[in-house]
Amino acid sequence: MVLPDTTEDTQGSGLASVNPDLASERLTASFCVPRLTAVLDGGAERTRLRRAVVDVIESDPVFSRENQYFQSQNERYEAAVRKAVHVRKKMQEMGWSEDGPESVYIYRALSGDVAFLLHRVFMRSISVLGSDKQVAKWIPPATEYQLIGSYAQTELGHGTYLQGLETTAVFDISTQEFILNTPTISAMKWWPGDMGRSATHTVVFAQLYIHGKCYGVHPFIVQIRSRQDHSLCPGVIAGDIGPKMNFEHIDNGYLMLKNVRIPRENMLNKFCEVQPDGTYIRRGSQKINYFTMTSVRISLISDEVILPLMKACTIAIRYSVVRRQSKLKPGEEEAKILDYQTQQEKLLPQLAAAYAFHFINNYLHELFNRGYREIQGRNFDSLPELHAFSSGFKAMVTQYCTSGLEICLRACGGHGYSLLSGLPSLYTKILASCIYEGENTILLLQTARFLIKCFTAASAGQPVPPSVTYLAAMKPGKCPAKDKLDFLSPDIYTEAYQHAAIRLISSTAAKLQDLIQSGVERHEAWNQCTVQLVQAAKAHCHYITVKNFVETVEKLENTAGIQNIMKHLCDLFALHGIFSNAGIFLHDGYITGAQMDMVTASYLDLLGIIRKDAVPLVDAFDFTDKNLNSALGSYDGQVYQRLYDWARKAPTNKQISPAYEKYLKPLLHNKLSKL
Ligand SMILES: CCCCCCCCCCCCCCCC(=O)SCCNC(=O)CCNC(=O)[C@H](O)C(C)(C)COP(=O)(O)OP(=O)(O)OC[C@H]1O[C@@H](n2cnc3c(N)ncnc32)[C@H](O)[C@@H]1OP(=O)(O)O
Ligand SMILES: Cc1cc2nc3c(=O)[nH]c(=O)nc-3n(C[C@H](O)[C@H](O)[C@H](O)COP(=O)(O)OP(=O)(O)OC[C@H]3O[C@@H](n4cnc5c(N)ncnc54)[C@H](O)[C@@H]3O)c2cc1C
């Protein structure tokens, strides 16, 4: 390759021309790319609005992420705060409101690289758990950033087991205050974002004591820093927890409280209240104080999990059509790496999953909005289902997307490992989503608990929520597929998924029952079933995702090739799941070995079909170069030039190595003198 004589920065500006290897991929799209973008956005008008927001954000240098890969933790934090403050100014300038449609797009345009995410969770807690009076008191100043909030639940000793939290809030009837304390080192709050260096307030989860009786964990609004000079409030010890795998831009913090007094009104009391005489009142579900988590688990799926996978697919697929390595056919030019079947098998299922999860996210939001409306009206009937779904899908989608992202990174070979590819940061960030807001195994076990209950109820002919009525519909029989084309029939594969989910749930329920009947204590029997329970919960979520993808495709417009290509992706997603979890489907002979060969054949055929549309399918995600921030994934495919230009910007290339004077020079000179 001839090196152009350029010293210009190529980021975002786009080099003169699109790499012909990438350009040619766009000429043969089987569908209309802008139409698909509009489908993903929920309409062309939303696409227009999103792009307008992105334009505003990206044309402002304060929001630039150009030097991000070369910044220290301190610099990342400061930049994130600067951006958060500047966003406010920008929103005022543009007349955008916090609850307006633009907010979603702002966050997407900033790639989450902004401070005060937990401030939003703080506000969400108050909105969902606070009384009207508390909402009126706290939300306006929080919206105006007259205070900055955080969400302090996890402690050094406990993150998962919330009943084990040790922070105490003792009601002092004489002063009408709660006294908050961190009684032990393990009770120290540890991890809350925005708390280490920014927050003035936080929602603290603590064990409520009234007259010496413990009422369990409740949320309290506590001021931790002065709003005037930001000094720590009396009795408060707080700081930053130090370096992490990612999230350098967020000041995850620690917090200790020593006899910190807050007024009675600071306990969030829409559902639970302590009256002046110390009477405790609860309205509704015992688990309602966990509702912020339910809501955030659903809120985070799109921006924190699906978008990163979409970006990774965009980067890896664009790169895979400009990267040529080895020869497919002797005597011909080197092949695009995406033409190797193994490369297709790495990347295209991830692409299909990104679409599948985009659609399941829409489904989850509908489910949540319906449930939330009911809960606001003090009807808690849908809470168990909402909890089971938000837990299971948070776990399944984060796990799948994290694995998918790692596959994309590795599929880019050595260049994928460079921070400049954008993939390592996406990976180390998304990995945290498998842990925060509930560690995934724990969440799947919550889903399994719900499924086992529903299975037992359904088997006894009792009513169960609509999403799990299928548990009562175990049909005897085998997969009817006769040839590989049958496996492109949604009915065939959806039934297979349904069968697998019911089998795993019912066999685990039976094992649990057998153990208990044989005298094993319930908790021990449960523990002996947990590996299979996790498997069953995953199978349930996988089934619902496939089913929802099928239903979504059926409803899509059948013009402009959209429905056709989405059907291929849906088939691919479904068959990839069967192909890579073959044991589950073969186990009871529902699918035979011969049928598994048919699955494999159809699955591999689909790779070749979707390969042709791979670039248009990632183009439809509509990420700008600035948003991708990847030397490998830009729209123009000028990968090598961009990698070189960006590497030259590294501070290490802009100074003489201090190690030369200190170590290398004496070393080399010493050796020289002996020559
Ligand atoms: C806001 C704007 C968007 C912002 C978007 C930006 C996002 C930006 C992200 C980047 C930043 C990262 C931010 C990370 C922020 C943290 O990570 S915050 C900390 C999150 N922590 C967790 O998730 C803790 C996980 N642990 C738990 O949720 C619960 O303790 C457990 C594990 C579910 C079990 O709790 P438990 O009290 O021991 O309950 P247990 O005795 O097992 O009883 C279970 C019963 O309670 C029920 N239950 C448990 N939980 C619930 C629930 N939530 N609801 C209803 N029922 C429940 C069960 O169904 C079960 O019912 P039954 O079967 O008995 O009827
Ligand atoms: C980037 C990041 C940001 C965070 N932000 C916040 C925040 O803003 N506010 C906040 O309060 N917290 C926050 N957290 C904390 C986070 O929510 C917890 O770390 C998370 O809920 C997991 O809990 P844990 O650390 O106690 O894990 P543990 O429960 O200790 O998990 C360790 C292992 O034990 C297993 N395990 C534990 N219990 C069981 C069980 N009953 N059955 C089977 N296996 C079990 C788990 O499956 C896991 O394999 C954050 C964490 C991270 C990484």
From TrEMBL:
Residues 35-148 form the Acyl-coenzyme A oxidase N-terminal domain. FAD binds at residues 154, 193. One of its GO terms (cellular component) is peroxisome. Its cofactor is FAD. Keywords: FAD, Fatty acid metabolism, Flavoprotein, Lipid metabolism, Oxidoreductase, Peroxisome, Phosphoprotein. Pfam families: ACOX, ACOX_C_alpha1, Acyl-CoA_ox_N. InterPro entries: ACOX_C_alpha1, Acyl-CoA_ox_N, Acyl-CoA_Oxase/DH_mid-dom_sf, Acyl-CoA_oxidase, Acyl-CoA_oxidase_C, AcylCo_DH-like_C, AcylCoA_DH/ox_N_sf, AcylCoA_DH/oxidase_NM_dom_sf. Residues 290-452 form the Acyl-CoA oxidase C-alpha1 domain. It is found in: Peroxisome. Residues 490-668 form the Acyl-CoA oxidase C-terminal domain. The keyword Acyltransferase does not apply. GO terms for biological process: fatty acid beta-oxidation using acyl-CoA oxidase; lipid homeostasis; very long-chain fatty acid metabolic process. The active site is at residue 437. GO terms for molecular function: 3alpha,7alpha,12alpha-trihydroxy-5beta-cholestanoyl-CoA 24-hydroxylase activity; acyl-CoA oxidase activity; FAD binding; fatty acid binding. Belongs to the acyl-CoA oxidase family. This is Acyl-coenzyme A oxidase. It comes from Phasianus colchicus. The lineage of its organism: Eukaryota, Metazoa, Chordata, Craniata, Vertebrata.
